[in-house]
Amino acid sequence: MDGQKVRNMEEFAALSGISRPTLSKYFHDPDSVRNSTREKIELALSEHDYRPNIFAINQNRRTTNNIGIVVPFLADPFFAEIARNLEQRCIAAGYAPMLFSAHGDPALECEILDSLRQQKPAGVLLAPLGRASDRKHVEKFVADVPTVVFDNNLPDMGSSFVGMDNTQSMRMLVEYLCASGSPPNFFEMRVAVNPNVNRRRNAYIAAMEALGHTPEIIRVDGDGWEFEEIGRQGGLTAFATGRFTSDTILCSNDRLAIGLLSAAFTSDIKVGRGPNARLRIAGHDDHPFSRFTCPSLTTVSQDYASMSDKSLEILMQMIDSEHQAQSQKDFLFDGILTKRASA
Amino acid sequence: MDGQKVRNMEEFAALSGISRPTLSKYFHDPDSVRNSTREKIELALSEHDYRPNIFAINQNRRTTNNIGIVVPFLADPFFAEIARNLEQRCIAAGYAPMLFSAHGDPALECEILDSLRQQKPAGVLLAPLGRASDRKHVEKFVADVPTVVFDNNLPDMGSSFVGMDNTQSMRMLVEYLCASGSPPNFFEMRVAVNPNVNRRRNAYIAAMEALGHTPEIIRVDGDGWEFEEIGRQGGLTAFATGRFTSDTILCSNDRLAIGLLSAAFTSDIKVGRGPNARLRIAGHDDHPFSRFTCPSLTTVSQDYASMSDKSLEILMQMIDSEHQAQSQKDFLFDGILTKRASA
DNA sequence: CCCTAGATTTTACGCGCGTTAAAATAAATG
DNA sequence: CATTTATTTTAACGCGCGTAAAATCTAGGG
């Protein structure tokens, strides 16, 4: 390729000896032109390295090649990991992912959706903030743009959802903990950041009662996304005031559990399933760091890969069928019990 | 505002009674029109909610309102946190951040830069992969687009750099560790992922020698970005084979230290500065999770806020002065010794 | 060799906004 | 009130590409 800059498709048409409309077809779908002309184009392409102007393209197409990925808090490694999975799958599917984080701020979430809308994305993968989300705003967006909601559903919104079956996973955890030791207390934040949290609590209660045990819930104060710190502070006071009624604590999520582990360590309470351990702790989500805590954290894994695949699969269906009978469905994945050293 | 969709600026001009060129000026800079007309426009805006088509705008402007943020691995909470800082500051400065992660893949890094270039961003904040980066590719990009490199410099590239002073921080750590106990071994990965790693090792050596101690470096195998796992595996074998010559281990970064902590726990080696602890471990970077490890990790903090501010400040200067005498400078920040329980 | 379906070229218009120059108007000045 | 100065309007072109219609060409089948 040479250094001469090709200004536009017109110029490249002259250089390659192919007409502009044909080039336009080619760039939209290389397989839509005859083999011989494709070869000519690609030859010229290798000599002049021209790329069509993306803004001019997008101005004239009804929809772009972008897929928006919106998560509530990207600095949470859990979402970072999901985002990574989704991004790579988008790329593999020939789309250009655009990643956004609401940073825990509902107003920012709205702004992101607004700016995303005018970007005319082919589709959007949205993990909403949850309780804090502006429902109406999200609803409007979902109605206009092909969207798959994931991780955390806002019910009755008319969109498909991909997430995990919290009821199944919590029951599984409770049953395991009961079978291997004392029935667990449930450790959570007082303010439920999203519907998943409520589902998990309810599933805990149901599972405990089904086994003939009395549920016991410890709620800690704190707002925001600093779950570890909240779990740590809550744990410290809970230990100090003897609020736990069991030697087994099931946490609403791994980040809280990580904080609780820290509190236990500070309080000199040995955690694990060994004979001289005084406490068992379990979490939920298989946070990327859970395998490196001391002791490593027993938890429920989400199958990132399958869930990402499913999300994109559904989104692509929506894109292809152009809003046609979206058949709005929920896809719930089973969690995988991941036994480690903490319980 | 009503539901009627305003198709374009022409239509909105008719509705608002303001001519299109004036509207164009207004949307570019609301303060560039007379107060009375601005009020008229904003009144009409509140009634019809029209937003200019972003693609048409960007096609005709030489540069957009976007600032690209590129990090090597977003699933690393360290970069997630930096990205969060940078994003919020971009927004505050009136820009629209676009976040990209190379996911540890040099080819992807190149693609990101290529697609970023045709996005005509106002500027780019780039943390390169490091050793794996395609230097020439990055160099070309930096020459074309106003760019501030951060976290991890590729020297002699003609761009400004904002990062921390690894020499200062390692010396500080070494001095602290020596003053409070035995001189440390240095624990790192065999393959240096980026120049920072080399600087840290050299700084360790220099600081040790300055204090009259013999440097001792333990290198562990492993490639990729799973630092915790690498640290853990390397730690396990090092403990098993007795490769450490000191009871104090200084790790090249926090993630490695987190893995080493996990290995120590598994190996039943108590870590900390208490009387019955057998090992001290320190890290570098103040990873978001370092305060929740068991024991909490002694490390060097980077001042995310100041570094983000500085990066954007320099970038804005470059944008304003339009490539004019970039005065390419490096801005190194001192680390802050953060003493916790592990050393 | 002719024929025909399918591919390509020609021609021309449209997308929504940036931008400019000249003309018209409004505000500020004395 | 006349004049200067700052804004706005009018009119028109350009940006780079999508796309449609008609004309022309190509390849494969008979």
Structure description:
2 copies of one chain form a homodimer. Chain A has 12 helices and 12 strands. By secondary structure, chain A is α/β, with parallel strands linked by helices. Chain A folds into 3 domains: 9-52, no CATH class; 66-162 and 305-332, Response regulator (Rossmann fold, 3-Layer(aba) Sandwich), CATH 3.40.50; 166-301, 3-Layer(aba) Sandwich (Rossmann fold), CATH 3.40.50. In chain A, helix 7 (135-144) links the parallel strand 3 and strand 4. In chain A, helix 8 packs across helix 9 (195-210). The termini of chain A are far apart. Chain A binds chain B through residues 51, 53-56, 58-59, 74-77, 80-81, 83-84, 87-88, 91, 96, 98-101, 103, 108, 115, 118-120, 228, 232, 258-259, 261-262, 265, 288-289, 291-296, and chain B through 51, 53-56, 58-59, 74-77, 80-81, 83-84, 87-88, 91, 96, 98-101, 103, 108, 115, 118-120, 228, 232, 258-259, 261-262, 265, 288-289, 291-296. Chain B binds a DNA duplex (30 and 30 nucleotides) through residues 7-10, 18-22, 24-25, 27-28, 33-34, 36-37, 52-53, 55-61.
The ordered string of helix (H) and strand (E) elements of chain A is HHHHEHEHEHEEHEHEHEHEEHEE
pLDDT under 50 segments of chain A (min length 5)? none
Shape of chain A: elongated
Q: Distance between termini of chain A?
A: 61 Å
Total number of distinct structural domains of chain A:
3
CATH hierarchy, class of the largest domain in chain A: Alpha Beta
Lateral arrangement of strands in the main beta sheet of chain A: 2-1-3-4-5-11
Helix-strand category of chain A = alpha/beta
Give me the CATH architecture of the largest domain in chain A, please: 3-Layer(aba) Sandwich
Task: Fill in the CATH topology of the largest domain in chain A.
Answer: Rossmann fold
Oligomer: homodimer
By CATH, the superfamily of the largest domain in chain A comes out as Response regulator
Largest sheet of chain A: 6 strands, parallel
Supply the number of helical segments of chain A.
12
How big a fraction of the residues of chain A is strand?
Answer: 5-15%
* Fraction of residues in H or I helices of chain A: 40-55%
> Mean of residue pLDDT of chain A?
93
Rg over alpha carbons of chain A:
25 Å
